[in-house]
Design a protein that fits this description.
Number of domains: 1
Distance between the termini: 23 Å
Helix content: over 70%
CATH architecture: Up-down Bundle
Order of helices and strands: HHHHHHH
CATH superfamily: CDP-alcohol phosphotransferase transmembrane (TM) domain
Shape: globular
């Protein structure tokens, strides 16, 4: 199970906006680049003001906005004839760069074990790379859960809200990160095995 499975319903809500953006000449690549720059800027702001937990309030807002932008750029590409080879590069690299920019500042928060947070980020990158490898071997781009991109965004959004409310990080955050690590290892295994099965069939 993954929050990603709700994507079709989310896209239906966004479709009127996507049609308006296409009409005024907004391209899929422009949306992708904007989402990446927004994520980088947010990460830098959180890092710069990490001593004030309230700054984390912006993280779930940006994560949700970025999720909407990711859906919008895909719909512009597919439904308004904006697919391009450059767009494929921007889409995949943008996701990895955005995830890293948004999650890395958490490693510098008091009470967060940096090695665990860095392991989460590394596995997030590895998970997306594994998903892309499905296409390389002739399968589809794999988005299998658990703890895919949308799931990670949800977890870190909730974590940011809890920390912004004044709850101190500690043992509970370490346990959470360990659980995320284990789930992402499963994610990678599922993506590999299902891609291989898809090619075999």
């Amino acid at each position: 199970m993954s929050i990603y499975e709700l994507k079709p319903k989310f896209q239906n809500l966004l479709r009127p906006l996507v049609q308006k953006l296409a009409k005024i000449g907004v391209t899929a690549n422009q949306v992708t680049i904007f989402a990446m720059l927004l994520s980088i800027a947010t990460g830098l702001i959180v890092f710069a003001f990490s001593s004030n937990p309230l700054i984390l309030v912006i993280v779930p807002i940006v994560l949700f906005f970025r999720m909407a932008l990711n859906a919008i750029d895909g719909m512009l590409a597919r439904e308004h004839n904006m697919k391009s080879s450059l767009g494929n590069f921007l889409n995949e690299l943008g996701d990895v760069i955005s995830d890293t920019a948004l999650y890395l500042p958490f490693a510098y928060l008091a009470g967060i074990l940096e090695p665990l947070m860095l392991a989460v980020i590394f596995l997030a990158i590895l998970s997306e790379m594994t998903g892309v490898m499905g296409v390389v071997i002739g399968a589809s781009r794999r988005y299998d859960g658990p703890m895919g991109k949308s799931d990670r965004a949800f977890v870190f959004g909730v974590l940011a809200i809890i920390l912004a409310c004044g709850v101190s990080a500690g043992m509970w955050t370490s346990i959470l990160l360990v659980v995320l690590i284990l789930l992402m290892v499963l994610n990678i295994i599922f993506r590999i095995t299902r891609a291989l099965k898809e090619v075999k069939n």
